[in-house]
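Notebook, p. 212. Picked up where the previous page left off. The plan for this session was modest: take the two constructs that came back from the sequencing core last week, fold each one, and keep the raw output in the notebook itself so nobody has to go hunting through shared drives later. Recording the first one now, exactly as returned: residue sequence, then the structure token string.
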Amino acid sequence: MNEPEHTSQPMFPDDKQTGEMHGYMCKVDFECELGFAEGGNTVYPSVENLKERRKCTPQCGIVKVAVRCLEVVQAEKYTDE
């Protein structure tokens, strides 16, 4: 598989070799909804942040995930031109 030509790296990646950022998700969202939820799924920056915002974690569980940019599909535009 060829790597995409244009990639973007996060400012502070958790894994310097892959550029991956790590985060946390509700385990049920990860297993059942990731890729299918029309409004998207949230990745939280810490276990504590996830537990504060999602009261389902005692029943659903928590997973640690890795996110990596593969390609910039649309670049940012900061001007009003």
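Okay, moving on. Second construct, recorded in the same format:
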Amino acid sequence: MNSIYGEVLGAVVRWLLGSVGGYLVARHVLTTDQADRLTSDVVHNAILASPIVVSIAWSLWQKVRSHRKVAAIVDALDSAVKTNKVGV
């Protein structure tokens, strides 16, 4: 993954976790130290897992795209048969 994407992903995840952590600290569910440790651990694991997630998403997208192509071909053949453009 490109380093700029990793930086952006890290910034977004840190912001989200900071917001959740701040909410939980304000409600006295977590202490400040626990919120900081949670944020750093989750950001680290998210950055490590991002290449796996990207590759799985790319694979799924290719499967969906190929399924759409096959479905379009089947629909075209079905409509051609129904309108008698193709002899069966």
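Notes on construct two before I forget. The helical segments are 3-26, 32-82.
Flagging for discussion at group meeting.
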